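Aim 2 progress update. The chain analyzed this quarter is reproduced below.
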Amino acid sequence: MAAPASSAPSQTHTASKPWYRQLYFWVLTAIATGILTGWLWPSAGVALEPVGTTFVAAIKMLITPIVFLTIVAGIGSVDSLGRVGRVGLKSLAYFQAGTLVALLVGLIAVNVFQPGAGVHAHPGDLHLQGDAAQYVKDGQGQSWWHFITDLVPESAVGAFAEGNILQVIFFSVLFGIALKAVGPIGEPIVDGVTRLSAVIFKILHYVMLAAPVGAFGAMAYTIGKYGVSTLTSLGQLIGLFYGTSAFFVIVILGSVTALLKINIFRLLRYLREEFLLVLGTSSSESALPRLMTKLEGLGVRRDIVGLTVPTGYSFNLDGSSIYLSLAAVYIGQATDTPLSITQQLGLLAVMLLTSKGSGGITGAGFIALAATLSTVGTVPAAGIMLIFGIDKFMSECRALTNLAGNSVATLVVARWERVLDTAHVNAVLHGKSPAIPAAPEKKETDPTPSANLTKAQPAGVFDSP
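Predicted structure tokens:
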């Protein structure tokens, strides 16, 4: 079903905007200005912390309702619940395969380049303190199956209040399935959900107008607080992580998109505003709502986007997986802890589980790392103090890689479902105005107003300041 004509003018208008009125230009300018501010006036940069945190908080305020409304609307519009289960299983299968590849890439890189060799840090001299001590404490209290036991919220309202995406997904899927199962009784609710989605996305549009300000404050604080010199102290590890992540995105994910007959560089360019937003705020969550909209603009069905992207934020963390394998073996090398191939594969097996559900939470990478080291016991958990100071500069790369991985995952699942129009995707990537697709076609006898899914999409969602 084609997008309604009413949405076309605004999107054409957006495509014709000059570069200096595009969001990516202002976010990029804000990031550069923030770096200079934090470098030249560190105290002023630190004082700007509330600017960045307030913007991220405003985005997080909208994430749980957007995830809930998108999933419920997507499930409520499909012609069969079997399709929902099929999309979910395919997504999880791809996520697990992607996580395994990312962990292996990180493991190979750290063994080849050995950035921790020669550090010779004695575990007894490493004393946990501050946030690092709390992260290790939290990690030691986590079991390898925690992501399964944490799936069910104690309270539906509590899941939304705490911003636990995994629990919100669980409740949303149950709600959507029940809504579909009750038949005609639930149709007015589906219609209401799509109308409410339009309001929430309009609020998102207003919040996104402050994106450059938020990116400026966050970057100024990071440089002012930790200093540029921090980057050089463990530069080899940082460089290896960034290089490995770039290899994963360009070569591994690029090969996947090549099989789909899609150019990875054009896809990255299409999502440039989202990548810059993540770079400026160090949070992949800040780009989640816009990512979902952009993928729908490529012609991916809304129910696929609604199920795959939010779930991927908990189960498909490619950047976090690379970080975990790199960091764990680096600590082993730096503390002169011998690790055989068998022991490293054992670490990898545990990371396949501890990496799940670690997205979107401050310190989640450290908690997952501490949980892994505590579970295996071969590498001292106190060794995370060796990399604690540079974690802030590595979090941006984790978030960027996670964003790229979830974008590709959504396209793969759509292709797996045989509903990906590659010609349309490439047309949009070459500059054609994005068009939000309708929900899956429904049978004539089913009166559910699925067309409203398209109409409910705010026309200005692609607009940038």
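The CA atoms of residues 337 and 432 lie 54 Å apart. Residues 1-15, 437-465 have pLDDT under 50 and may be disordered. These observations will guide the mutagenesis experiments scheduled for the next reporting period.
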